[in-house]
Amino acid sequence: MTAQPVPASSGDTDLALRALLGDVLGIPAARVAGFDEGTELFGALPEFDSMAVANLLTGIEERFDVTVEDDDVEAEDFTTYGALRRFVERMAG
Question: Phi and psi dihedrals of 31, rounded to 5?
């Protein structure tokens, strides 16, 4: 089943991103719900590897109905949950 795109104005960016992270990383929703602004991701979570980054970018494009170009992505965007959320908000905005 393909996820439906989330409109940028829906206010559900955080919830949609958490659901996407759970799907891509294969971790329980309760664990993702505990992520805060400073929760470290890439390099800190064993599930969050380079393949997960590629799958996450594809998921962001599908779920938020955006196109992510190579120039849009910085390594810092994946360091913490807060940085990732800001990246998605920037792309969807």
Answer: -70, -45
